[in-house]
Amino acid sequence: MSKVDLKVVLLGSTCVGKSSLLERYVYDRFRGGVPYQNTIGAAFAAKEVESHGKKFFMGIWDTAGSERYEAMSRIYYRGAKAAIVCYDITDRPSWDKADFWINELRRIEENCKIYLVGTKLDVISDISERAVGLDMVARYSKRIEAPFIETSSKTGENVAELFQMIAEDYMLNPENVRQVEESIKLSARNKRGSCCLVSS
After folding, report:
1. Cα 88 to Cα 82, 98, 117, 160, distances in angstroms
2. Least confident piece of the model among 93-97, 106-110, 184-188
3. Where in the sequence is the domain holding 24, given as residue range(s)?
4. For residue 184, is it within any domain?
5. Whether 133 contacts 165, CB under 8 Å
6. Which keywords does the record carry (predicted)?
7. Beta carbons of 100 and 27 less than 8 angstroms apart
8. Cβ contacts of residue 15 below 8 Å, gap of 6+?
9. pLDDT for 126-155, tens place per residue?
10. What spatial distance separates the first Cα and last Cα of the chain, rounded to whole Å?
11. In a domain, 39, yes or no
12. Domain assignment of residue 53, yes or no
């Protein structure tokens, strides 16, 4: 695989659906009914994305949400250009913990762009089932200057849109564009070099 140009970390409490979000985006699948397993440390997947007419690789680290793995998860913050902070819209404690993850991240990687993501949108059928109101999220996201979006990994709603938004925002930075262009050139040179090798 080509080198990762855009490093993204998934943060949030246990059971908010970080792994399901990753699976839906990268593999377009949802493993409903499969016994839940906590992520230990971090899981990784990569996908080629396209923005502003250029293709590049997004690497996504799905970090553990359990408190016993918090210290381990911090090592994956380094070099992250974007962070998806997840909360379950039917679970208020998961929203309350989001502020913790954001403060942790900014302490280690202060220039990382944050995206607030409400998960399990498919679960609610009316507003009474919401534990996290849109107005509250909107006020908080405005204060910390982070876009927010609600998603469903089960149906796929807004999942591709979330990651495309991250790719688009990344390519708004001229320095990132230069790095992607260099990566494309390097990959092309490597391909030319490998096709010209002759075995004797």
Report:
1. 20, 10, 9, 18
2. 184-188
3. 6-192
4. yes
5. no
6. Nucleotide-binding
7. no
8. 36, 65, 88, 91, 94
9. 888 899 999 999 999 999 999 999 999 999
10. 27
11. yes
12. yes
Per-residue pLDDT reduced to its tens digit, 29-75? 998 755 445 554 568 999 999 999 999 999 999 987 555 555 656 78
Considering just the CA atoms, what is the radius of gyration of the chain in Å?
18
Contact by Cβ (8 Å): 85, 114: yes
CA angle 125, 126, 128 (to 5 degrees): 130
- Tokens describing residue 100: 């913790």
Q: Which two tokens stand for residue 132?
A: 């996290």
Cα separation, 165 vs 159, in Å, equals 10
State the pLDDT at residue 199.
Answer: 44
Structurally, the chain folds into a number of domains equal to: 1
Cα dihedral 44/45/51/55 (nearest 10):
120
Cα 57 to Cα 43: distance, rounded to the nearest angstrom: 16
The DSSP string of the chain is -PPPSEEEEEEE-TTSSHHHHHHHHHH----TTSPP----SEEEEEEEEEETTEEEEEEEEEE--SGGGHHHHGGGTTT-SEEEEEEETT-HHHHHTHHHHHHHHHHH-TT-EEEEEEE-GGG-SSGGG-SS-HHHHHHHHHHHT--EEE--TTT-TTHHHHHHHHHHHHTTSHHHHHHHHHHHHHHHHHHHHHHT----
